[in-house]
Hints:
The complex is a heterotrimer of chains A (329), B (274) and C (254). Chain A has 329 residues and is α+β, with helices and mostly antiparallel strands. Helix content of chain A is 27%, strand content 21%. Chain A is built from 9 helices and 12 strands. Chain A has helices at 11-21, 90-106, 110-117, 164-172, 212-216, 223-227, 275-294, 304-307, 315-323; strands spanning 3-7, 23-29, 33-37, 62-69, 72-74, 83-88, 119-125, 147-150, 156-161, 177-179, 234-240, 247-254. The radius of gyration of chain A is 21 Å and the shape is globular. The N and C termini of chain A lie far apart (50 Å). Chain B has 2 domains: 3-98, Translation factors (Elongation Factor Tu (Ef-tu), domain 3, Beta Barrel), CATH 2.40.30; 104-234, 3-Layer(aba) Sandwich (Rossmann fold), CATH 3.40.50.80. Chain B has 7 helices and 15 strands. Chain B has helices at residues 5-8, 78-84, 121-133, 156-165, 189-195, 211-223, 265-268, and strands spanning 16-27, 30-35, 46-51, 55-60, 69-74, 91-98, 111-117, 141-147, 167-172, 185-186, 203-208, 231-234, 250-251, 254-255, 262-264. In chain B, helix 5 runs parallel beside helix 6. The radius of gyration of chain B is 18 Å and the shape is globular. The mean pLDDT of chain C is 91. Chain C has a 5-stranded parallel β-sheet with strand order 2-1-3-4-5, sandwiched between helices. Chain C has 2 domains: 7-153, Rossmann fold, CATH 3.40.50; 165-252, no CATH class. The chains are: A alpha+beta (329), B alpha/beta (274), C alpha/beta (254). Chains B and C meet through helix 2 of B and loops of C.
Amino acid sequence: METLLLKKKDFESFTSELIGWCEVISPVKKEVVRFKKIKNPSDIYLGKNSFFPVKEFFFRKKETIFKFKSNKISIPKLESPKRVFFGLRKCDLNAISHQDKVFMETIKDPYYTAQRKNAYLIGYHCNEAPSKYCFCESLRLNDFFDLMLYDRHKDFFLVEIGSEKGKTIAKRFRKYMKKTDSKVSLEEKKIIGADRLLDSNIKGLYDNHGWQEGVDKCLSCTACTALCPTCYCFDLKDEVKARNLGEGERVRNWSSCQLKEFTKVAGNHVFREKREERFKHRIYHQLDYFRERYDVDLCTGCGRCIEGCPTRIDFIEIINKMKQGKAKK
Amino acid sequence: MNPDVLMENKNPYIPVKCRIVEWKRESPDNFTITLDLRLKHEPGQFVQVSIPGIGECPISICSYSEEHLKLNIREVGNMTSAMAKLRKGDSLFVRGPYGNGYKMGQFRNNNLIIIGGGCGVAPLKGVIEYVERHRDDYKDVHLFLGYRSPDNILFKEELAEWRKKYHLTVTIDENVHGEFCYNAKTGFITDALKNSSIDNGNKVVFICGPPIMMNYVIQVLKEKGFNDDQIFISAERLMYCAFGACCHCMIRGKFTCIDGPVFRYDEVKEYEND
Amino acid sequence: MSEKKLSVGFYGITGCAGCLLSFIFNEDELLDLVKLVDLKAFPFVKEVNPSDHFDYVFVEGLVASNEDLKVLKELRENSKFLVSLGACASTGCVPAYRHYTLKENYEHLLYKKIEALEDVSPTPLDMHVKVDYYIPGCPPSKEEIKAFIKKIVRGLQPKPNDNPVCVECRRNGNECLLEKGKPCLGPITVGGCNSVCINGGFECWGCRGPTTDMNLDLMVQILRSKGFEDKFIQDRLTTFAGLKLPMLEKIMKK
């Protein structure tokens, strides 16, 4: 992989010029860290990963699928400006690649694609786990980015180019990023303290009583699925205007498998009525079901679903206990 | 409309407008809509039907024809009740076909046992029409169709035809009026099945109906020596996208919309109720 | 729409009329909404006898007097569908909190001169008559009222929301107030309010009543673990929907 060197003393000028080039979205420290459009390089916060995931910029919370009026359907114009997403962690970059698989490779979703098309992804590689709930090293994540910054040296970042888009940025900002013979070793790509999941293969644990510990602490509040950078389920709903009931739009909204509504059919039967089934469904979709179809775990180990859970249900601990045969009866 | 027009549609969420050429009541809460839509599909597949402003819902295709598309609908929710108010000449929006239907090619030279309960008969009617057009490919065809009451019997006109061509048994759970109706036997479909002489030799079974009915039917089939991989069931789930993205229809790791709605029983038997 | 318009009435029994205001607050679409129905009654605007016939009647407030009860029963008898509008009507809201306090503690404050208080214990509508639909909340969401009317005029069944407030709150990108040590009841409370209180920095008090899926045991445990005392927890949980939590007493004893 082609590697460049970006001096830390140039970081401010580089990011400042980046902001001049297009919209830049990066983690910003407010009450919590979140992704926001920034105006100044000093807004960039790299101390911790964002509490909220970046997915809302691509798989948007609410998307107008089409508008209708008197039985005529029209599709809204789909476009997004050129945007740089700066400071994405490895987990979040992989999460984008997993959602890409669903929305771009499998179904060619034009709404998601429109948001993704002009997005440049610049990563910031963790040296050690930024949260005690991280477990990305236990999953097989890939190098997925346009550019990735490695912060292993006092005076400079090593920057890897991961795509054509990455090349475009590197070329445009070549006065800051110089070619170097240094390489980022596999050892340097290891993230310390993020390998706490003993084994991500959870087949055979479905009927284990060990899940109960998590189920008892679950409110089904959906914090986990909303904060997850990969969860992608949705509803479709029609909204009409009071002025003309034949005029309105079909909208796509985020949904959550933790809700009873999620499997309720006409006639009010709920297929996953029990909290336990819903609790396990999310974890199995993340660590088992998705792999059957896409050959990769959906989960990328960011730990947000634990950090953001009101009762901190640590399903990694729960799985480890079951794996070690230590689950309480 | 061209057969493949829907598949060419680049945006997978966008339905196409078609026209209702016939609207026919089948029973007090059930009706059949015929659309001027020519669509390549296999029996057991479904389409997503939209009425802009009201919503969208999956409806199984109950015909097998190159000329039109028939949908049989039971009024249970907002969408289906709104469809009940439509009439000939009205427009309806459709996208599809979706799902994994009955792979009829694989069952050539088999005897077919087709078991339907209530509006579960609808997708099976598509199978029957397919068989009609490929009659030499299949051996004996047994139909077991169960309904709640004489009023609920569907496809009354077709029944007479089917009786001539196949081994047909119609049951009704209760027949309070004692009226004559289509040679139906009073009693549960499971009893009719038990009392029949069918065995598992060189046969495949298609079942579609309410979950409880399918469970009892499978019990009877097991008693008669049928293997799980001879049995094909049809699942129903909440669905929005129908192309494997929205996740509502998942049965464990399987998507009802793309892996189903027709499943070989051994693939889902442990968690069909999830 | 050539069919006959639905006849609709709005009524208030003991309440603050805030729920009626919620309907009016649909400023942009208000006149369009009114045109969709045959609005036969609305307090202050067009008052008619409750013995009139309605397809849908929206009732605000709760039963707190014999007169309330008489009106409510009359409305029920004369309407096809009765809609409980707002928290008082749906869950009892603050007036029903009286069930959790001693009458002697407050009676003298207001009613010094009254020798005997003859009233009905303040109770939500469904403790007296059958309620077909609920639009909960103090005040109810104007969006929900609007969506409800758009549904019924097209002959569609409105579906009750049973998702917790957290669903919208997380989507809105709020910081979790429970995390910040506030006694937020979002996880057990019916959403549909767009988490309006939390958006403004106030914790959810549960004005929309409990979800059918709530984990009340756990909610109580969480509040205890945050250092709240049982008296406070019980007070908070019974403020808006105490009568809908008959199991609370048993849970608190655990």
